[in-house]
TrEMBL record:
Species of origin: Citrus sinensis (Sweet orange)
Similarity comment text for this entry: Belongs to the iron/ascorbate-dependent oxidoreductase family.
UniProt keywords, alphabetically: Dioxygenase, Iron, Metal-binding, Oxidoreductase
Protein name: Fe2OG dioxygenase domain-containing protein
DNA repair listed as a keyword: no
Phylogenetic placement of the source organism: Eukaryota, Viridiplantae, Streptophyta, Embryophyta, Tracheophyta
GO molecular function: 4-coumaroyl 2'-hydroxylase activity; metal ion binding
Length: 363
């Protein structure tokens, strides 16, 4: 089949991508066929493979106890960590552990549905854009596919949720979102205070946390995990992300923009927080949206459930004036949040490149 964009779907075995993507079996379906070797569509270029990466043992991202979140010490450690690491784990975060357990069960329930049920939510079939089941990230533009299935749910209203989100998981996902609100506001309060922003007015609030997206990720057991990735290197475009993972592990975070990577070891009952590009922009680069990726696993299935706290699509992203008050030059120009997301969702994962979209180019 002729192709102009080097798309994997167009150039290589049609049947496999049809089975995974169009028929809705996902990579989970492939994994369950008991393949002995990884199909070539998933072979990542050498430089993206994990064998090429240096993983630091003995180093972990900071762990913060949120029970005294308002104390100056805890607030300082949250802001320092957002500045120096961009990633941390939290315990005593106030989201009930039963809620998190129900979210994990619901995630397994969704992916256990037959392919015919799941494909009702695929790009072609889903009645709305805000509910999307798929595999990899943007299959038709990727040079190599990622070993992951997902269900992505963009929250608009309770009405839309009850009409369109899959019944096997919608109550649990809504409960997750509702129970995280207090935590979200606490984190926001602490983080913006650290930027000298005294007031969250009606312009700032939607710019910081005007929308939510929750993703259910499924990384099935993989033949030849060393040849592929679960998720390629990227930074999130959110203000910040709250990530729930199970006890399998596989998420890695880049250390200091260098060549070394840190494994985010699962801690039971914890949540992972990471700064996204939107907050990096609003803080004029003070808080860091750090690159991360997920390795595939040769012996176990893994799930994760990120809750992306995003600006409203209509919001204009730009550095806060308070951050520039000391004469600091803005590193980013104002961009419409919807344009920024469109830019992210139409190209393959490519490390920290998304933020170049908002960078002022002469510096
Ligand atoms: C993401 C992501 C990490 C994980 O969905 O953006 O980075 O552990 N997920 O699944
Ligand atoms: Ni991510």
């Amino acid at each position: 089949m002729a192709t102009t964009n080097g798309s994997i779907l167009a150039t290589q075995s049609w049947d496999l991508t049809d089975f995974v993507v169009n028929k809705g079996h996902g990579v989970k379906g492939l994994s369950e066929m008991g393949l002995k070797s990884l199909p070539k569509q998933f072979h990542q270029p050498l430089e993206e493979r994990f064998s090429e990466k240096k993983i630091l043992d003995q180093v972990s991202i900071p762990l913060i106890d949120m029970s005294k979140w308002e104390s100056p010490e805890v607030a300082k450690s949250i802001c320092d960590t957002a500045e120096n690491w961009g990633f941390f784990q939290i315990v005593n975060h106030g989201v009930p552990l039963e809620v998190l357990e129900r979210v994990k069960e619901a995630t397994h329930r969704f992916f256990a549905l037959p392919a015919e049920e799941k494909r009702k939510y695929s790009k072609e079939n889903s009645p709305i854009n805000n509910v999307r089941y798929g595999s990899s990230f943007v299959p038709h533009v990727e040079r190599a596919l990622e070993w992951k299935d997902f269900l992505s749910l963009f929250y608009v209203s309770e009405e839309e949720t009850s009409a369109f989100w899959p019944p096997v998981c919608k109550d649990e996902m809504l409960e997750y979102m509702r129970s995280s609100e207090v935590l979200i506001r606490r984190l926001m309060h602490v983080l913006v205070k650290g930027l000298n922003v005294k007031r969250i007015d009606e312009i700032r609030e939607p710019m910081l946390l005007g929308s939510r997206r929750v993703n259910l990720n499924y990384y099935p057991m993989c033949p030849n995990p060393e040849l592929t990735v679960g998720v390629g290197r990227h930074s999130d475009i959110s203000t910040f992300t709250i990530l729930l993972q199970d006890d399998i592990g596989g998420l890695h975070v880049r250390k200091d923009n260098g060549t070394e990577w840190i494994h985010v070891a699962p801690i039971s009952g914890s949540l992972i927080i990471n700064v996204g590009d939107a907050l990096q922009i609003m803080s004029n680069g003070r808080y860091k949206s750090v690159e991360h990726c997920v390795i595939a696993n040769g012996s176990q299935n893994r799930i994760s459930v990120p809750l992306f706290v995003n600006p409203k699509p209509e919001a204009i992203l730009c550095p806060f004036p308070e951050v520039l008050a000391n004469g600091e030059k803005p590193l980013y120009k104002p961009v419409l949040c919807a344009d920024y997301s469109r830019h992210f969702y139409t190209k393959a994962h490519d490390g920290k490149k998304t933020i170049d979209f908002a960078k002022i180019s002469d510096i």
